[in-house]
Design a protein that fits this description.
Blueprint: H1 3-18, H2 22-58, H3 61-67, H4 69-96, H5 99-109, H6 112-124, H7 127-136, H8 148-175, H9 177-180, H10 183-206
Helix pairs in contact: 1-8, 2-6, 2-7, 2-8, 2-10, 4-6, 4-10
Length: 208
């Protein structure tokens, strides 16, 4: 694989990472409720799931999963349910608006593992991530020339770019945290985040 090919792939992944998606919304949701540390744990969970899905795609396991309709549909509907669940959580917080009491309750309930799990499950139950790997990676691989190592490099680049984008999002949230903690702003953001997450779930459900 040449540096020119890899550079083109990297540029494409940077553009895709910057597009709003469920992963970014989950990181934002956890950053708002748990600060930079809460968002970082969610980001870590997403990264682990991304690396696993990338590895599966590079080794050919992803094609097996997507070709099995029952398995694919099961993962899809789990993803729909989980995205809607996260969206309703955010909307409930916006509706109540009692962030001091909610923050105390979540501090006791939302351990680092729970935030990690939230990020991990939101990514690993989204079959569109696996489809992305399977649709993009082959365009940069030449049968008989590129190796499994090249496929893994591209797959891990996708995951790495995603981590960088989410860390930048966390830094932005941290810089404007005082503004974000205003009740009206927080309710608006929770409402938008919840609506977007449910929208992603609905879009996933409607896809064939």
């Amino acid at each position: 694989m040449t540096w020119g090919v890899y550079g083109g792939f990297l540029a494409m992944m940077m553009l895709l990472a910057a597009a709003p998606g469920p992963d970014s919304m989950v990181v934002l949701k956890n950053a708002l409720s748990g600060g930079a540390r809460g968002g970082a744990w969610a980001c870590f969970g997403i990264a682990v799931a991304n690396f696993l899905q990338g590895t599966a795609a590079a080794l050919g396991l992803g094609a097996v999963i997507t070709s099995s309709r029952p398995v694919f549909e099961t993962v899809k509907w789990l993803g729909v349910a989980y995205l809607c669940y996260l969206g309703f959580q955010a909307l409930r917080g916006a509706w109540r608006g009692d962030y001091e009491a909610l923050h105390d309750a979540r501090r006791q309930r939302q351990t680092p593992f729970r935030r990690w799990r939230e990020g991990f499950l939101s990514n690993v139950t989204n079959p569109k991530v696996l489809v992305l790997y399977l649709s993009v990676l082959p365009q940069f691989l030449v049968p008989g020339v590129t190796t499994t190592g090249d496929a893994l490099l591209l797959a891990y680049t996708v995951a790495g770019v995603g981590v960088v984008w989410q860390v930048l999002l966390l830094l932005l949230v941290h810089r404007v945290r005082a503004w974000l903690e205003r009740r009206r702003v927080r309710r608006t953001l929770d409402g938008v985040t919840g609506t977007v997450l449910i929208g992603f779930g609905a879009a996933l459900a409607l896809e064939g």
